[in-house]
C-alpha cells in the first residue's frame, strides 16, 4: 500500500490534518480541523498525475457542481484550494459509516432501516435532478450514514450538469460497473432515469446484503445488467413484501421509459410504503405488508397456544373431580395454562403496543454491551424495547474508554450508533 500524501499534523491552508480517511481512484481523503474556527472537515486532495488534464478538469468539475448544492442529505462543500499545485476540496465531514461498511457489518438491513436510508437518498437525488444534474455514479461507498440513520451523498466526481462540458469521449463508460444502467453500458450516456436504476440497485443491496447483478467476472455482470436479470430480493429476504419488491422492480426495468419518470415520483411511493410500515408497526388492522407466510405462522402459534390451553383446562377439571380437596394442584395447573396462553411469542404478534427491535452499534470496530454489569453481547447488538422506554447501557472496547449511554427509544429510529473515545 502506497504511503499517504499528507501526514498527521501537517498543515493545509488553515487546516491541520487529524487523520487519514480513505483513498479513491482520483485522490485521498483526510479528516482535518480549522485551526481558528475549530470546525472538523474532510479534505479531498487529487493524488493522480497532475499532467492528466481530464482528471484535473473532472476534479474541478466536482467542486463546481457540489458548490451549487445545499441539501441536508448532501455533504456541503466549503472551499476549493491548491496545495503544492494539487487541487483540494474542503467539505463537510460526515461522522458515520459508509453504506459499504454498514452492509458489511450488518448484512441485510431491516426493512424499516433500509427505507429510512433510501428515503434520504431519494430526497437528495430529487434535489440534484431539480438542479439539472445527473449523478451517474451512485454506489454504497459514495454514501455515509450518520448515527441518526440519515444518509449523505459525498462524491460527485463524474456528475454532469446540463451545461458542463463532456469530459469523456462519446460511448466511453464512466462509473462503477455494478450500479450502471443498461444504457450506460451500451452507449456511455446517462440521464435521470439512470440514477433511478442505481437507486433501485442500492435498495436491493441494503435489503439482501448483496448487489443485484453481482458475478465473478465483469463480463457476467454486464450481461446480467443488459438483461436486467437478478434474483427476486424476496427470495433472499422474506421480510420484503410485494409492494416493496415491486418498487425495486420498477427502478430496475431494462427500458428506461418503464422506470419511475422522476425521483419525485419514486419518493412518493417510498413515503407511502413508509407510512404503511409505520401503521403495521402500530398494529393497524388495515395494513397487510408482511408476507402471507408470516400470517400463517402467527395463526399457527395462536392455534398451538389455544390447543395447549384446552388440554390443560381438561386436565385441570379432571384433577379437580377426583381431588376436590387438592385445590393447590388445580390452581397450579390453571396457572400453567394461563402462562402458556400468554406466551411472549404469541403476545408479541397480536398486541397493539408492540416492542420493536433496535440495533446498538459503535463507529470504531466492535464493543461489548453491558446492562447492570451483565454482558448482553457484542455490537452490532439487537435489543428489544418499547417506544418511550429509557435504555441505559455500558459499552466496553479494548483500547477505548468505557462509555455509558442513555437514550429514550423512539418509534421511528431503529439504529443507535455511538462514538467511543480513546
UniProtKB/TrEMBL annotation:
Catalytic activity, EC: 2.7.11.1
Domain called Protein kinase: residue spans: 15-273
Keyword list, A-Z: ATP-binding, Kinase, Membrane, Nucleotide-binding, Serine/threonine-protein kinase, Transferase, Transmembrane, Transmembrane helix
Transmembrane segments: 299-319
UniProt-recorded Gene Ontology molecular function terms: ATP binding; protein serine/threonine kinase activity
InterPro entries named among the record's database cross-references: Kinase-like_dom_sf, Prot_kinase_dom, Protein_kinase_ATP_BS
Binding site for ATP: 44
Catalytic EC class: transferase
Keyword Membrane set for record: yes
PANTHER family named among the record's database cross-references: MITOGEN-ACTIVATED PROTEIN KINASE KINASE KINASE 20-RELATED, SERINE_THREONINE-PROTEIN KINASE NEKL-3
Name used for this protein in its record: non-specific serine/threonine protein kinase
Organism encoding this protein: Pyrinomonas methylaliphatogenes
Amino acid at each position: 500500500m502506497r504511503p499517504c500524501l499528507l501526514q498527521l499534523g501537517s498543515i493545509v491552508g488553515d487546516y491541520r490534518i487529524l487523520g487519514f480517511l480513505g483513498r479513491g481512484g482520483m485522490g485521498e481523503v483526510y479528516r482535518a480541523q480549522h485551526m481558528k474556527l475549530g470546525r472538523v472537515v474532510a479534505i479531498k486532495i487529487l493524488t493522480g498525475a497532475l499532467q492528466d488534464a481530464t482528471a484535473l478538469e473532472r476534479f474541478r468539475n466536482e467542486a463546481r457542481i457540489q458548490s451549487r448544492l445545499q441539501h441536508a442529505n448532501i455533504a456541503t462543500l466549503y472551499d476549493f484550494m491548491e496545495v503544492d499545485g494539487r487541487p483540494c476540496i474542503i467539505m463537510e465531514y460526515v461522522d458515520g459509516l459508509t453504506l459499504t461498511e454498514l452492509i458489511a457489518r450488518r448484512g441485510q438491513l431491516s426493512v424499516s432501516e433500509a427505507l429510512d436510508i433510501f428515503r434520504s437518498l431519494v430526497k437528495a437525488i430529487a434535489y440534484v435532478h431539480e438542479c439539472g444534474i445527473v449523478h451517474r455514479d451512485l454506489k454504497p461507498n459514495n454514501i455515509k450514514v450518520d448515527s441518526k440513520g440519515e444518509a449523505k451523498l459525498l462524491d460527485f466526481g463524474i456528475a454532469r450538469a446540463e451545461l458542463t462540458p463532456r469530459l469523456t469521449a462519446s460511448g466511453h463508460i464512466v462509473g462503477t460497473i455494478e450500479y450502471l444502467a443498461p444504457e450506460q453500458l451500451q452507449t456511455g450516456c446517462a440521464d435521470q432515469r439512470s440514477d433511478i436504476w442505481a437507486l433501485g440497485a442500492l435498495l436491493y443491496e441494503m435489503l439482501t446484503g448483496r448487489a443485484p447483478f453481482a458475478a465473478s467476472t465483469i463480463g457476467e455482470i454486464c450481461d446480467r445488467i443488459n438483461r436486467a436479470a437478478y434474483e427476486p430480493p424476496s427470495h433472499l429476504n422474506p421480510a420484503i413484501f410485494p409492494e416493496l419488491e415491486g418498487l425495486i422492480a420498477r427502478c430496475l426495468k431494462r427500458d428506461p421509459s418503464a422506470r419511475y419518470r422522476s425521483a419525485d415520483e419514486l419518493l412518493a411511493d417510498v413515503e407511502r410504503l413508509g407510512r404503511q410500515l409505520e401503521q403495521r408497526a402500530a398494529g393497524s388492522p388495515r395494513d397487510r405488508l408482511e408476507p402471507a407466510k408470516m400470517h400463517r405462522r402467527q395463526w399457527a402459534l395462536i392455534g398451538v397456544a389455544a390447543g395447549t390451553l384446552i388440554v390443560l383446562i381438561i386436565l385441570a377439571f379432571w384433577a379437580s373431580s377426583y381431588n376436590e380437596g387438592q385445590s393447590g394442584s388445580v390452581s397450579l395447573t390453571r396457572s400453567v395454562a394461563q402462562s402458556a396462553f400468554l406466551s411472549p411469542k404469541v403476545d408479541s404478534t397480536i398486541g397493539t403496543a408492540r416492542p420493536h427491535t433496535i440495533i446498538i452499534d459503535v463507529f470504531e470496530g466492535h464493543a461489548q454491551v453491558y446492562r447492570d454489569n451483565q454482558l448482553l453481547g457484542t455490537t452490532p447488538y439487537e435489543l428489544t424495547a418499547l417506544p418511550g422506554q429509557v435504555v441505559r447501557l455500558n459499552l466496553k472496547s479494548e483500547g477505548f474508554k468505557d462509555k455509558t449511554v442513555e437514550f429514550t427509544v423512539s418509534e421511528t429510529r431503529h439504529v443507535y450508533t455511538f462514538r467511543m473515545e480513546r
